[in-house]
Amino acid sequence: MEKNEKINLNKPEYFFNRELSWLKFNLRVLREAGVKTTPLLERLKFVAITASNLDEFFMVRVAGLWDQYENGINKRDAAGLTVKAQLEEISKAAHDQMKLLNKYLLSLVKELREAGIYICRVSELSEKGRRWLEAYYQEEIFPVLTPMAVDASRPFPFLANKTLNLAVELTNQEGEDSMGIVQVPSVLPRLLEVPGEEKRSFVFLEDVINEHCSDLYSGCKILDVVPFRITRDADLEFDEDDIDNLLKEVEKSLRKRTRGASVRLEIYNKANSRIRKFLYDNLDITEQEVYEINGPLDATCFFKFASLPGMWPWLYEPFVPQRPLELPDDSDIFKVLRERDVLLHHPYESFDPVVKFVSDAADDPNVLAIKQTLYRVSGNSPIVAALARAAENGKQVTVLVELKARFDEENNIIWARRLEEAGCHVIYGLMGLKTHAKIILVVRKEADGIKRYVHLGTGNYNDNTAKLYTDMGLMTANDQFGSDASAFFNVLSGYSDPPVWNKLVMAPLGLRKKIYELIDNEISIVKKGGTGHIIAKMNSLIDYPVIQKLYEASMAGVKIDLIIRGICGLRAGMDGISDNITVRSIVGRQLEHSRIFWFQGGGKEQLFLSSADWMPRNLNDRVELFFPVETPAHIERIKKVLDLYLRDNVGAHMMQSNGTYRRVTNRLEPVGAQSTLYEWALLAAAADKIPMQDRLRPMYDRDKA
Question: Do 456 and 356 sit in the same domain of this protein?
Fold first, then answer.
């Protein structure tokens, strides 16, 4: 291929479809259930994670495609697939994935037996166990059951999203064939532990109910009982232009969430044709949307199962986030930040300093104002409590609560009301945009005037997920960051025009342009005879214009290493197009969530953190922040982290040119990025007596010195 030959970068074969790429990611998660070196119940949790992910995928992505198709929209995506073709390909891949999920689940249940934990049928229990179960049924289960008949006078009942049900085929008192429905109560434990058995034993709640169907339909002959589960469209839709009160509109939409159109039916694979027809007709389901399961339905129940008392021998040893190297527990955060910036790496380093930052500000008489964005927070958030306390203490507190954070809407409505009651000024963001940026601004009166302190992060202000998700945060008292932070909140809370930024880059106003400029700079350097190198770590890469820009860079000779946990629409390894690009995905104990972007810059390197992935929604339809890391020690520290990810051969999967992923194998010795980062954090936490100038050097460099 001639160097000057113009290449058409719009060809469908240069891209992967978003939905199919996501299914490949979920398959990588599922395959962790087969890694024998992982503790047994952790492998079972990977099955539960996969099942939970599929639920949301059907409720949002598949439902959205069906909505398009039924409204006459059948356009092709960048990968050349029509909406109809996407639905067909999704169905094939999802059916295969659910079969594999069930295969892993049954295998793990067998391994549990070998470990002395029995998930069994009621008939396998001892006489004593069955007596206990009968008493439990009469006292706890029976009172909450509602057996429903379906006939001419009693129509098919509405079945809420993700509920587990039993379809009962029976002959009624008049000798007529009929059908009934029994909903399995979600208020009761799905897996019931039966005391007094020789081995630790559990039975499924639906099996217990099945045993008593003849009592529920007294006088009827039970012919068959089949468990099934329905998944519905759960995406919220409303036109913000016609809304006077966003909070009330979100509340109203939430009430409709469980009642959306059916998009998937999971059913026991031994169901007879009569029960199948009964369900298909009443749920308006096609064969394409039916998933036959040879085993228990809804594997998400194993999250709670794995957390039961006494399960620790089959779990990872407890993971304890460590005290940050740069910020001792008893330190005055404001004093430290006046001296230097602080970089935090969660979950290896504790999230406590972020909570302490807000909490100390709430109680500090010199603090005048606190401003913060909230996207997803925990159910008992100490940060929300601190913000409320700050308002009660007379400080000016402004909180942007994103009411449209999917599946956190209800929680965020509760917190918005709590904050308003405390006296906070609560805003809901800009019309038509979700606010996904992570930022805190504290304004403090000091001896030399007003000082602004800022925290910027790649992840949510959620103290629970901060123990599981990998994220980075930057704390600074830099005046330019402070000025930008004030301007950012003014844009969100009023009618201010966007300023000329000093440090921050904001989507949707300038982030796409900035990304293009950074990539173009690497291309320019290579064309002048230098070397170009980009390392980008994020959750998802599916913005096709950005992908085309990366292809241009690869064709120019820029080396590009991408660390993409989930969706990736870019196709690596194509001759003459993307042969300078590698794509790897890290799947492991922690969920990789940090967004890190490094550009070699011909010796003038630049490193950025961001709340944004490279997706159309992040660059076009969300308020996001992209910000530089400028402390040399911090840049070196993050580069070491990136290098570790690129050397990982434990949780890494490399994309092949056909779009499949191959697990990177241990050729010499295992290098696990996540476990090594935790080891570094443990070493750093023990560094109490190390001088601060040495503390800022990464611990792993000192060890090599």
Answer: yes
Asked if residues 651 and 643 have their Cβ atoms less than 8 Å apart, the reply is: no
Beta pairing partners, 229 = 164, 266
Rounded to whole angstroms, how far apart are CA atoms 193 and 48? 19
pTM above 0.90, yes or no: yes
Tokens of 130: 């069955």
CB distance 43 to 29 below 8 Å? no
Q: Quick check: is 326 in a domain?
A: no
**3 in a structural domain:** no
* DSSP strand pairing (290-293 vs 449-457): unpaired
Q: Within a domain: residue 196?
A: yes
- Give me the domain span that covers residue 190: 12-314
Residues 153 and 213 in one domain: yes
212 carries an active-site annotation: no
pLDDT digits (tens, 9 = 90+) for 34-59: 999 999 999 999 999 999 999 999 99
Same domain (yes/no): 367, 251: no
Flag the least confident range among 181-195, 225-239, 557-571, 572-586: 225-239
d(Cα 550, Cα 314) in Å, to the nearest integer? 43
Q: Into how many domains does the chain fold?
A: 3
Contact 409, 377 (CB under 8 A): no
Instruction: Look up residue 680 and give its two tokens.
Output: 């570094």
In whole angstroms, what is the distance from residue 629 CA to residue 342 CA?
10
Q: Answer yes or no: is 7 within a domain.
A: no
Yes or no: say if 233 and 66 are a contact pair by the CB < 8 Å rule: yes
How far is the C-alpha of 20 from the C-alpha of 659, rounded, in Å? 10
Catalytic residue among 346, 436, 455, 593: 436
Distance of CA 263 to the CA centre of its chain: 21
